[in-house]
TrEMBL record:
It comes from the Eukaryota. One of its GO terms (biological process) is phosphorelay signal transduction system. This is Two-component response regulator ARR16. InterPro entries: ARR-like, CheY-like_superfamily, Sig_transdc_resp-reg_receiver. Residues 1-67 form the Response regulatory domain. The modification 4-aspartylphosphate is found at D5. The keyword Transmembrane does not apply. The keyword Phosphoprotein applies. Keywords: Phosphoprotein, Two-component regulatory system. PANTHER family: TWO-COMPONENT RESPONSE REGULATOR (PTHR43874), TYPE-A RESPONSE REGULATOR (PTHR43874:SF147). It comes from Acorus gramineus.
């Protein structure tokens, strides 16, 4: 599992997600995107891009660990 933050200093989380999904070596690894922001358009963008990924806006570590337990 790869956990990335939406707001990183050099690259946005969505850009990193696109690079991961374009890589044949990494594309099958589940990705969790976290952010303290709660912007519905960003959430929809992540969900639309790849339904296998999970986006958590408004960080809830318990929710992340519960969702990742089946991975």
């Amino acid at each position: 599992m790869i956990i990335i933050d939406y707001c990183m200093p050099e690259m946005k989380g969505f850009d990193l997600l696109k690079r991961i999904k374009e890589s044949s070596a990494l594309r099958e690894i589940p990705v969790v995107i976290v952010s303290l922001e709660n912007v519905p358009t960003r959430i929809n963008r992540f969900v639309f891009y790849n339904k296998k990924n999970r986006a958590f806006f408004g960080l809830n570590l318990c929710l992340i660990f519960c969702c990742s337990s089946g991975v």
